[in-house]
Amino acid sequence: MSVEELGMPIRVMLVEDHTAFRHVMTVLLAREPDLEMVAQAESLDEARQHCTSVEFDVVVLDLGLPDGNGADLIVDVRAANPAVGVLILSASLDPTSLQRVTLAGADEILDKLASTTEIAGAIRHLGSG
Amino acid sequence: MSNDPNALRILDLEDDPVDTELLQANLMAGGISCEMVRVQTRADFEAALENGDFDLVLSDYSLPSFDGLSALELAKEIRPEVPFILVSGAIGEERAIEALKSGATDYVLKQRLERLVPAVRRAVREAEERNERRRAEEALRQSEERYRTLVEQIPAVTYIEEPAESDNPKVVTYISPQYETMLGYSAESEMIDKEHWYKTLHPEDRERVLAEDVRTDETGESFDIEYRMIAGDGRVVWVRDQATLVRDEEGHPLYWLGVQYDVTEQRRAEEALKEIGEAERRRLARDLHDGVLQDLSYTTAAMGIVQLNAEGTGLEEELQKAIDAIRRAAQGLRAAVNDLRIEDERDRPFPDLVESLVERNRGMARGYELILEVEEGFPATSLGDAGTEILRVLQEALTNARRHSRARNVQVTLSKDRDELVAEVADDGLGFGPGTNPGVGLRSMGERAAALGGKLEIESEVGEGTRVRLRVSITQKG
């Protein structure tokens, strides 16, 4: 399907401090015509700033950020736009952290080891719901 | 003045110096070497007594300005321990008796001076005996005082308790004042109220401590145990209590001599160290996670991109194998790190561990019900290492149910089927059919099942939900 048929591409903000992984995500989203990376943040603070200045449909949030717990960002994201889809990527799948973000309102938790196809699919699913 | 240091120093209240000489001569002849000081007025007598160091007072009965009985009174006041002998002419029996009753050591008639020497010897000897006794008592008192001070300075509680065989069994006859410092109860409360110790023992420690108390009463072995007491202000105090049975020469129990120390600080330090050890392990776990897993995640994703670009080429399959290998490595690492958490729990009853697992998973997704059912017959014991493996399989199955199936209801069931333990995760989600790639998760579950010597059964149809069942033969477990 062409972008025109799909309508507007799904706008994605990526919050991830691992530079190489950010790069991979950039490449991945560039391959998907219906997904567009509109903002990137290396820290929760940076992400908060984007919340108020950029419009996005899905935020892909890594849990291992240096300046705090991702769960706290979810509150700010929803405050800016309640309809945003929150996709958590977790490498450790630590049950306590996952419980926390779920209770904070994450829509989906994905194993960071999942295939790129799965990740793209999850973003797509959240962005169109 | 005689230079003999052993000479008796005598104060003589006498107005006639000749009489004094006579007395001295008499004493010397009798073998009593002495120094005599003569006074005749009250003032001189008083001054002499106060300033001098006399072994004996001799006094005439009546003097021009003074009298023997008043002198006696004065001497008793100023130097009560110095013997006082009245030496006089005939004074009559009544007065003599009166003098003796008033505290005179003896009286000697001047007409019967041959009695003087024996009287003096006896008086001096008695005075010495009295002094000896007094010195001994004082020494004992000081010694006791020193011991008491020593005992009370010890930063521990010392106590003495009657043995079980005595007429007052197990009564505490002494407990040092530190008791109050340590626990906030007065030392008396332990002695007066026999129940006091029992009441202040922490309820959880009572059984254990009393059992040891009974045992040592029976065997006479030393009592040495740590337990908690509840202080007056409600604080919990850890106490080390050591008591030894002291016996007499024949081996009969005399008393228990005990010491109690406050070891709360040491206990707290040990626990703190243990916690630090655990905190270190958790930190290690997190560091392992963050570092290596991040790298592996990146590598998997990067290879995924390469794989997408290699679509249609023969490279795709090779890349897929490599990606799977990395995933397995990463999952193995995750499991190893989770082991650091699970390690302490391995010996807990298996159903408890499953309950914790289910509880953790409940919080992980919204919009679905997660139920645990443990059927009768399922062992309530720890399953050791096998249990850990089964838990991992359950976790993977739960993760799949949550993420892929869009289930509304998920149930974990533990049951026993003849000689097999069965752990099942069933959901009412999308299910999958033969055409669906089972994914790495199911593959690794299968591998774990095989490693346990068990079987993994998966039942699923599209639209009909999924059941993942693990069967492990009991004889093979552990």
**Poorly predicted residue ranges of chain A:** none
Q: Supply Rg of chain A.
A: 14 Å
Mean pLDDT of chain A: 87
- Please state the overall shape of chain A, judged from the principal axes of the Cα atoms: globular
Number of distinct helices of chain A: 6
Q: Judging from the principal axes of the Cα atoms, what is the shape of chain B?
A: rod-shaped
What's the helical proportion of residues of chain B? 40-55%
Q: List the strand order in the largest sheet of chain B.
A: 2-1-3-4-5
* Helix content bin of chain A: 40-55%
Note the gap between the termini of chain B: 106 Å
Radius of gyration computed on alpha carbons of chain B: 49 Å
- Largest sheet data of chain A: 5 strands, parallel
Main interface: chain pair and counts: A-B, 30 and 30 residues
In which order are the strands of the major sheet of chain A placed? 2-1-3-4-5
Task: Describe this structure as you would to a colleague.
The complex is a heterodimer of chains A (129) and B (478). Chain A is α/β, with parallel strands linked by helices and 129 residues long. Chain A is built from six helices and five strands; from the N terminus they run H-E-H-E-H-E-H-E-H-E-H. In chain A, helix 4 links the parallel strand 3 (58-62) and strand 4 (85-90). Chain B is an alpha/beta fold and 478 residues long. In chain B, the strands form three sheets. A five-stranded parallel β-sheet of chain B has the order 2-1-3-4-5, with helices on both faces. In chain B, helix 10 runs antiparallel to helix 11 (315-342), helix 12 packs parallel to helix 13 and helix 13 (384-403) packs antiparallel against helix 14. The interface between A and B is medium-sized, with 30 and 30 residues.
Blueprint of the fold:
The complex is a heterodimer of chains A (129) and B (478).
Chain A: H1 3-6, E1 10-15, H2 19-31, E2 35-41, H3 44-53, E3 58-62, H4 70-80, E4 85-90, H5 95-104, E5 108-111, H6 116-128
Parallel strand pairs in A: 1-2, 1-3, 3-4, 4-5
Helix pairs in contact in A: 3-4, 4-5
Chain B: E1 8-13, H1 17-29, E2 34-39, H2 42-51, E3 56-59, H3 68-78, E4 84-88, H4 93-101, E5 106-109, H5 116-153, E6 157-161, E7 172-175, H6 178-183, H7 187-192, H8 196-200, H9 203-219, E8 223-230, E9 236-247, E10 253-262, H10 264-309, H11 315-342, H12 350-362, E11 369-374, H13 384-403, E12 409-417, E13 420-427, H14 439-451, E14 455-460, E15 466-473
Parallel strand pairs in B: 1-2, 1-3, 3-4, 4-5, 11-12
Antiparallel strand pairs in B: 6-7, 6-10, 8-9, 9-10, 12-13, 13-15, 14-15
